[in-house]
Amino acid sequence: MKQEQNDKTMNVAFLIYDQVEVLDLNGPLDVFVKANVVRPGSYNCYTVGQSSEAVYTEANTMKITPTYDVKTVPKPDMIVIPGANPDQVMKYLQNDDFQETVMGWVKNCYHDNTVVFTICTGSMHLSRTGILDHYEITTHSMLLDALEEYNPKSIVNRNIRFVDQERLITTAGITAGIDGALYLVGKHYGKELADTIIELFEYQ
């Protein structure tokens, strides 16, 4: 892993939407939040939704109000896309409004040099954007076949925790998002910071 020379604060936008998987969202979010505690000024984390209205997480256990919507959000250096139950993700894939508004925003940011980091089934959300074309990618084991079917120009990797393609990072299921986030912290600011967060997490 080659460390980047990073002195500026990185804007990290966490996409939230109805029925988002809680650990997909909060696992990586807490990695970047802890990095900012240990090394102040590392990351500026915020949430973004299709609108400013609150959304329910998986199983309607809680409501989250996004910090911004896609029209008011500051330009992110990285967008984190958590996943959801496979059935929900496939519904979003067929939802033209979500694809045009939310994935359209992601696509525009990506083409403006924003890094896209997907967690679990979150990579499936990108299947109509063209962002995944010609990249090595992965997702939760339950959607690997579907990801391959919807992205014939991509190479779908199996039995791997995450795949780094520079401006596109995809991870396998749920807890792999924590692994991917720790990897990115190490890439951005050095292994020592990532190791400190692992100790704080008591993460095996």
Automatic annotation (TrEMBL):
The record ties this protein, via InterPro entries, to: Class_I_gatase-like, DJ-1/PfpI, INH-QAR
Signal peptide from the UniProt entry: none
Q: Name one GO biological process term.
A: regulation of DNA-templated transcription
Q: Which Gene3D superfamilies match?
A: 3.40.50.880
Q: Which residues form the DJ-1/PfpI domain?
A: 11-182
SUPFAM superfamilies, alphabetized: Class I glutamine amidotransferase-like
The protein's matches in Pfam families, at most eight in alphabetical order, are given as: DJ-1_PfpI
What name does UniProt use for this protein?
DJ-1/PfpI family protein
Query: What is the organism field in this record?
Result: Chryseobacterium ureilyticum
